[in-house]
TrEMBL record:
Residues 144-214 form the HTH luxR-type domain. CDD domains: LuxR_C_like (cd06170), REC_NarL-like (cd17535). InterPro entries: CheY-like_superfamily, NreC/VraR/RcsB-like_REC, Sig_transdc_resp-reg_C-effctor, Sig_transdc_resp-reg_receiver, Tscrpt_reg_LuxR_C, WalR-like. The modification 4-aspartylphosphate is found at residue 52. It comes from the Bacteria. It holds the Pfam family GerE. Residues 2-122 form the Response regulatory domain. This is Response regulator. SUPFAM superfamilies: C-terminal effector domain of the bipartite response regulators, CheY-like. SMART domains: HTH_LUXR, REC. Keywords: DNA-binding, Phosphoprotein, Transcription, Transcription regulation. The lineage of its organism: Bacteria, Bacillati, Actinomycetota, Actinomycetes, Kitasatosporales.
Amino acid sequence: MRLMLAEDSTLLREGLVRLLAEEGHEVLAAVGNAELLLKAVAEDPPDVVVADVRMPPTHTDEGLRAALEIRERWPRVGVLVLSQYVEKRYATELLTGDTEGVGYLLKDRVVQVDEFLDALERVAAGRAAFDPEVVRQLLGRTTHTDLLARLTVRERDVLAEMAQGHTNAAIARRLHISQSAVEKHANAIFDKLELTGGEGYSRRVLAVLRYLGS
């Protein structure tokens, strides 16, 4: 796939460039700030952008702002955001929009190469990829909700996997259950959360957003 990187740490940026090149991907640009990233994307939109949340000049949310702008201006470009820590506000902001082709990973996950590459491929394929730790912390603040209290432990497990962006087939493998069981749990989740799936809305996405308290 065709990629662009935005990371102010030269060491990490160059490491990612080398890793992705070794995996057969084409890195079109590797820059150190959000302004240069937006300029590069405007000139030649890639398949996926990988961007750090915090970049110069203020090291607050420049990378996230750039990611959201890219999603708005170039909706076909996937965005995988990296963060040193779980930043709930930023993760929730990404989730409250269209989650197709969006990912949020902790930087520690990058060194687990297989997981990083899997997340990258999911984003490139138009699916979501959210770090399990991010999902766990976001879920921790929603347990008081009455509708969520209706879910069984297994249904919560399935919904947590959904929130990470896994397909039903992947969830079945990860939870060691059949795909038909996953589908059964998913339908139960939709019913218990009172999601009717109105026209133009994905019950799957709505369930994740409800679960994250968005």
